[in-house]
Amino acid sequence: MRNIIIGLVAILVSLALAGAGWFYRPWSEYSPAEIQRATQPDAMMASFRSMRDIFPYRTIRTGENPQNLPENTVNATVSYAWDGTTKTVEDWLLESDSSGLVVLHNGEIVHETYVHGSDALTHNTSWSVGKSYVATLIAMAMHDGLIDNLDQMAGEFAPQFAGTDYGNTSLRHLLMMSAGVDFNENYADPDSDIRELFLGTHIFGRDVDTMVAAVERDRAPGEDLHYVSANTHVLSAVVRAVYDDTLAAIVERKIWQPLGMVEPAEWNQNIAGPRGKAIGYCCLNATTRDYARFGQFYLQDGVWDGERHLPEGWVRQATRPNADFQEAGPDSVYQGRGYGLHFWVPEGHDGEYFMAGVYGQYVWVDERRNIVIARNAADQAWGRRTAESFAAMRALAAHYGDTPPIPDADTRENTESETVTESDTGTESDNGE
Q1: What is the dihedral of CA 386, 387, 393, 398, to 10 degrees?
Q2: For the chain, what is the mean pLDDT?
Q3: Cβ-based neighbours of 377, under 8 Å, separated by 6 or more
Q4: How far is residue 277's CA from residue 268's CA, in Å, rounded to a whole number?
């Protein structure tokens, strides 16, 4: 009996040691323990600016002629009215655990602030701001003649999705976040699909394409707005297929180098090495200045240094609602926000649109004022703070930007027919970022 007990104890100790070895992986550069620690609230600020140390990645290199943004920095104290008081942008940045803020007017840096230990060289993670980059690559593939139109099915390009519900979904409905799939995007729900996808790929190293291909449809596409990260990953697989390269290499060749980005960047993937696949729905890491440059690219209608990189009309189509259910309003799913083709639209938009990522990542564009605002943060109250963030960024745009002309009656009538109404903020747990 004693020998049996000793044998059982030895087995349990061996299993415990094996489990600890798997969790901590002292032989590896990356480990589940490190990932688990990085996602704790008190570690997020540091984690979000060191994702290349926590998750595997591929580097996105700069070109031979990086272009520093021109600077005319003023850094005025900008105030806005909020909840019966007057607050400053500095208050907002500190209270929201921001790391960086860059404001461009006509392509010049007019305001730049870094807090909580960050600086101009800090690589901040994009979270879902990266979705807008993937959508941009779809548009570039159309411009290059590799995709004919948005009504083609994803399975035509990405054979790993052939025969699946995602394979039978059009690029248009994926871009509109209207794929009709059964997917829980609630970040706070420990049993949600997005948590299973994130943990399955990052901690267990599962193939992200295989996991996403298993998602099924539970209603017809094109009927409602349902923000689903897996939609964007399918689009990233289409991009990889049409350009026959890794996502990082495509971003490097099509965006980073042509736009003269100054600092290299990274795109995280599920496992280290050449077999790793980019997490296509998030996980670009770059400087706040280079995020702002991408917004400027959109403000310039997809033209950089006199060369057009996007199809004519794409920017307007992508940054406005394409269907009634994408409009913002009191009855909308994501209150206070509408949607286009992987770009968000605030209520009362009138030429405003933005890219957004969880915990407060923004690239905000105001076409009428010629303003771009890039902001990075680790804001755990980002959902409740959405309306205040809009107020702060609009105050910056009004202070530094052009004064928009007052529309005449005919223009006002046309504008009002396109403008949506503003309501309260999204929820903390499922606000679609």
Answers
A1: 170
A2: 89
A3: 96, 97, 98, 99, 359, 360, 361
A4: 8
Dihedral pair phi/psi, residue 384, rounded to 5°: -65, -25
Query: Is 353 in contact with 397 (CB distance < 8 Å)?
Result: no
> Quick one: average pLDDT of 404-422?
45
Res 414: pLDDT: 40
Using DSSP's 3-state secondary structure scheme, residue 230 falls into helix
Residue with tokens 């901590």: 24
Q: What angle do CA 363, 242, 61 make, to 5 degrees?
A: 50
The predicted model scores a pTM of 0.90
- Find, among 369, 320, 309, the residue nearest to 342 by Cα: 320
How much is the pLDDT for 421?
A: 26
3-state secondary structure of 226: coil
Nearest to 122 by CA among 251, 291, 278: 291
Q: What is the CA radius of gyration of the chain?
A: 22
| pLDDT for the residue 165 | 98
- 8 Å CB contact between 134 and 236: yes
**Token digits for 200?**
């399955």
Domains detected in the chain: 44-418 (3.40.710.10)
Percent of the chain with pLDDT over 70: 85
Tens of pLDDT, residue by residue over 8-49, are 544 544 444 444 444 444 544 555 666 667 678 888 999 999
Torsion of CA 266, 372, 324, 171, to 10 degrees: -30
Structure tokens that stand for 136 in this block: 């941009």
Residues β-bridged to residue 60: 265
pLDDT digits (tens, 9 = 90+) for 61-113: 999 999 999 999 999 999 999 999 999 999 999 999 999 999 999 999 999 99
Dist CA 108 CA 118 (whole Å): 21
115: left (phi > 0), else alpha (psi -120 to 50), else beta?
A: beta
